[in-house]
Design a protein that fits this description.
By secondary structure, the protein is mainly beta. The protein has one helix and eight strands; from the N terminus they run αββββββββ. It has one domain (about 25-164): Porin. The chain has one helix spanning about 1-20; strands at about 25-40, 40-55, 60-70, 75-85, 90-105, 110-125, 130-145, 150-164.
Length: about 160
């Protein structure tokens, strides 16, 4: 019995360092430029920021905020949702996400709120263990307001990712 207990204790002690090491970051913090096309013909520039808490090497939960501006008009989005990453290479990390939340637009003396969805993904090029360049993030934007669904909007972002 002592031998079995000793082997069990040694196995647990030797496995602790291996379980403490992670092959993925706990969080990704992104910030960068965004180009947004809003239906029918508005093209705007702005910013995009997000933080992803990585639950495993392939799954994380993302909170995303953005702002786009054109001729005094503004569009802000606040969305959350799952992100799926493929961390098979030290050089690149492709990802896909589905984000849900709200959009808040104003301009020409009025304002509107809408339910917002972003479906898309992108590619991060890893500089080192803690920094990556987001070469592209492309999202199809869907807005729902007053019973009308707009499916013809999109955004493209690029910037820097810090990993912790």
């Amino acid at each position: 019995m002592r031998t079995v207990l000793a082997v069990l204790v040694l196995a647990i002690l030797f496995s602790l360092p291996a379980s403490a090491q992670q092959d993925y970051p706990k969080a990704d913090l992104f910030g960068g430029y965004q180009f947004t096309h809003v239906s029918p013909d508005i093209n705007a520039n702005g910013w995009n920021a997000s933080i992803t808490g990585n639950v495993s090497s392939w799954f994380g939960l993302t909170a995303d905020v953005s702002g786009a501006y054109k001729n005094g008009g503004r569009l802000h989005t606040v969305m959350v949702g799952p992100t799926f990453s493929l961390r098979k290479s030290d050089k690149v990390t492709p990802f896909a996400h589905v984000l849900l939340g709200g959009a808040f637009g104003s301009g020409n003396g009025g304002s509107e709120n809408a339910f917002a969805t972003a479906v898309g993904g992108g590619l991060d090029v890893n500089v080192n263990q803690h920094v990556a360049i987001r070469m592209i993030q492309a999202d199809w934007l869907i807005f729902r307001n007053h019973g009308i669904t707009d499916k013809e909007s999109a955004r493209v972002s690029a910037g820097i990712v810090f990993r912790f």
